[in-house]
Amino acid sequence: MAVTPAAVRTAAVRTATAGAHPHWLLKPIGFNVNQxxxxxxxxTAYRHGVPRHRNExxxxxxxxxxxxxxxxLLDSVLHVVLPRHRPLGLARRWRxxxxxxxLVDLSTMEERHVxxxxxxxxxxxxxxxxxLEPELMSPxxxxxGIPPLVQVLSVLHFLxxxxxxxxxxxxxxxxxxxFSKVLSRVLSALMKYMRSYIVFPEVEDLATVKGDFYTLGxxxxxxxxxxxxxxALVPPRGSEQVYRNRKSYHSMNVQVVCLADQxxxxxxxKFPGSVHDAYIMxxxxxxxxxxxxxxxxxxxxxxxxxxxxxxxxxxVRNPRTRAEERYNxxxxxxxxxxxxxxxxxxxxxxxxxxxxGSLMYSPKKVCHIIVACCMLHNLALRRQVPFLQEDGPDGGxxxxxxxxxxxxxxxDGDNTDNRDRVILQYFQ
Length: 428
Prior knowledge:
It is found in: Cytoplasm; Nucleus. The protein contains 15 helices and 7 strands.
């Protein structure tokens, strides 16, 4: 029996009078068009995170025109009977699922271009992606999510370039809001493996570490160089003065301990820029760790911004003897490794450098970004990935050195016995 416009109009009037809606009138709202011979064909083009839908309906029976007219007539009738009725547009019956098509193919890129863009080589990126894949997989297993490899590559590009999220998102083939979620997801995944990438030397490794430091300045028993550096950020509203450092810009004060090969063994990035280096050191885990290692007679080396402790050697402020001058020279050659570490870290990941601008995130997220960069820095050193730069000489391999200014001088304190003993024994 064919449905005529007159029958539909009569049924709508009777329904409005009776105050009840028969089931056959509301049937087309949830009606499956496939039962009438229609097969939806949907394609989605995903470009820069903006899906474009194109729904086409092909007719397989002679009732297609009648069905379209009937739906249009029902729309007009139900608009009077049900003012809040949603139109029965055929394009609304199917929800087009956006399928992500990556714009970056790591297998087709040259190895040098991979290192320049992501600061890691191809094999290291694949190893890192395999480690983080369980954390980055979508809870709903479907092919519409962004692959873990693309998430890792986009975050590495962001950390290496120090660019805006929109620029990195466009180059990765996603929207800026989606990249913001990806950044948080990858950073959270990296934080779970922090203790696997940033490790203080074990007792069995102390002899090797001391030997490496001794070749730098001929000071014995050194297992680390400690210093602080500043990473610029946009401060939270109402706390601008807390984050303003002595150079009159807002930052996070990051404490780092490194080895002789520029490997970062400790990082503390949770204090604002106005906090002194010595205060950060006292409120970190370093005093406890070094206290546990005191029976092995090992020391850290720091600048004059730190107090002279039983496990921390600082330079002599006003040397009076030739031995003290020789000690200061050896101290400077040994401590210079922390300056080279900061220079390489900020040159490899431009988001930490002033040329990359200020990080426009909350202090907690800035802390995660700093720690993630230190982890990737150690990973690059462990896998012996060279640091390449576009304008560097000899194929782009450069040695980045950034001078680090010392904080204002601290009082020597009462513990100068170790330093005097070192000067007397090795520099007299």
